[in-house]
Amino acid sequence: MSVTPLICPSILASDFAALGAEVKAIAAAGADFVHIDVMDGHFVPNITIGPDVVKALRPHTDLPFDCHLMISPVDSFLEAFREAGADLISVHPEAGPHLHRTLKYIRQLGAKAGVVLNPATPVDVLDWVLDDIDLVLVMSVNPGFGGQGFIDSQLRKIEVIRKKLDAASNPAILQVDGGVNAQNAAACVAAGATALVAGTAVFRGGPAAYAANIKALKGL
Ligand code: DX5
Ligand code: ZN
Question: What is the pLDDT of residues 12-44, one digit of tens each?
Fold first, then answer.
C-alpha cells in the first residue's frame, strides 16, 4: 500500500498581491506545509521572498513553514528566517562552504534541517550528513522558476535516496519539487517520496480549485 504524501504548496505560484489569503486558503484546502521559495538573483536567476514576508505571513496559519533557500552565501540569513517563523529550512550544498556546519546551525536554531539536491547534484553529498538532516529535497527541475517540466531522471535519484534512508533507518522526509502534478505524483511516491511540493498544480484554477487539486496530488 502506498503512503499518502504530504502536500507542500509552493506559494511562488500564488497571487503575491494576496499572500495572506492564499496561505489561509491552502491550509483550509488540506495542505500539510507551506513551501516558501527564497531566491536571491545570484544563486538562481530570480528574486522572490525575504524574511520580512515570511514574518508577515506567520500569523495567517499554523501550518509548518518549509523554507527552501536558494541563496548564497546562505549561513548569514538562517537566523533571520528562523526568527521570521520558518519551521523547516532547506539549503543547497552548493550555497555554502560547510554543509555540515550549516545543518548543525539550522538545528541549533530550533528548526528542522533539509538538504536540497539539484538535478545534477550527486546523492553521495548526503552520506556524511545523514544524522544531521530531517528532510531531503530532490529538485525535479533546475531551481529558479515555477511552471517547468518534470525531469524524469530524478525518479531514479529518489529511489536511490529512499534506499539510503531506509538502510540507515533514517526517518527523514523525502520531498520532491518541480513540475510535480497529478499525473506524475504517484510515480514520485512509488519511487519513495513522502512529500510533494507543487506550485502550478495546486494554485491553478484559483481558491475554489485548491482542495480538489491537493486531493488529486495525494492520489485520493
Ligand atoms: C523552483 C521552486 C519550486 C517551484 C515549484 O525553484 O523550488 O518550488 O516553484 O513550482 P511548480 O510546481 O510550478 O514547478
Ligand atoms: Zn522549492
Answer: 999 999 999 999 999 999 999 999 999 999 999
Average pLDDT score over residue span 57-75: 98
Q: If you measure from the C-alpha of residue 197 to the centroid of ligand 1, how many angstroms do you get, rounded to a whole number?
A: 7
The alpha helices in the chain, defined as continuous H runs, are 19-28, 51-57, 78-84, 99-108, 153-167, 185-191, 200-203, 210-218
From 141, 176, 210, the mutation candidate for ligand 1 (largest count of ligand atoms within 8 A of CB) is: 141
Residues with CB under 6 A from ligand 1: 10, 12-13, 35, 37, 68, 141, 143-144, 146-148, 177-180, 197-201
